[in-house]
Task: structure prediction
Amino acid sequence: MSDLADRQRALVAALVAGEDVPDGFDSAAVLATTAALRRKRAGEVARAWPFLAASHGAAWPRVFAAWAAGRPPNGSLRDGWDFARSLGADLPELARPELAAREARLVYDGRSAPVPRGRVGSWLRRLRSAHGSRAG
Amino acid sequence: MTPRYGVAIGWRPEIAGYVAGLPGLRFTEVVAESLHLHDPLPDGLRTLVERGVAVIPHGVKLSLGGAEPVDDARAAHLAECAAALGAPMVSEHIAFVRAGGLEAGHLLPVPRTREAVDAIVANVRRTQSALGGVPLALEPIAALFDWPDAELTEAEFLTEILDRTGCELLLDIANVYANARNRGEDPLVLLDALPLERIAYVHVAGGMEHEGYYHDTHTDALSEPVLDLVKELCARTAPPALMLERDGDYPPAADLTRELDAIATAAGWPAIT
Result:
């Protein structure tokens, strides 16, 4: 792996996976970027999961950002899904039908992209397990 | 003077009705990764293509600035978008969005080094060969920080990439403001150092001040300093299009109209609303 590849990975890890800011960078500016990325992610997840976001009212960006700290993004569908499941019994009433509707329509194993239930989905799941794929 | 395309706004599903209703619109952009080409084009977008509006596929996930080779499937998708839309060009960023299997979910700056220039040039050439002759415009991004070991200034870095790839410049005027402002420099000095004669088109967007930084959010209103920079740009050159980018927290139509009209006024161009 080239030097550039290693250094790019270290920067992304600092921004989304909670690792240390690499030497030489302006830490305050990198941390401000980390916070901005989490706010942006909260907005994207709110578009994919409007009831989940609405059920937290004005606290949504803060609540989601706290959960997202150190968790690399997996796209707004999976991020919202993981967050909703993480709340368990504390998931607000307003957000429950939205999660239930998604659980009814798609199979999500928490590790790879959700797939439709039914024939296409079962074919995709077989294909994935045959290839050992965890691609999101 | 009359610009080739004029004032424009990026097409997004949430504001498709508003965009379709703009009588003077001749140019727009769609996020390439949002198009699923096994489905028909969204109705609002297809109508614009049929009206003769230039619709530019704008990639956000190719990661041209990544040390890893660009994914051929992503480059092919960009080419297929151009074909489906009859687009006169496509665009992407000088940025990376993933590394070593981690997705950043955002456009990140690359170091302004010779090694990074080589990596970007290789990725741009790989993408150009997938595009089969459709021009690619490259957009420098906004960032709150720079890499520590710059060998080139932002303008030198950009000019070298454009020279070696033959690409045109997608200049984001709000990014010029953001980068200069966050470095504590004068946006006009940065603007004057850029190769303005190579502009394919221009992005204009809103942002916000937060804890000492200017964030290029695309979810806030256009600011006066950015509009002033539009005016300065148009006093120096005649870009083909000035396109407003809005990516969330969509305001009422009247606010978008006010912003598009403010861009037209700053440029001295006809309103498209």
Q: What stands out?
A: Chain B touches chain A at residues 66-68, 96, 98-100, 102-106, 108, 110-111, 113, 115-116, 119, 143-149, 182, 210-213, 215, 217, 219, 248-249 (CB under 8 Å). The mean pLDDT of chain B is 96. Chain B is about 40% helix and 20% strand. The two ends of chain B are 18 Å apart (CA to CA).
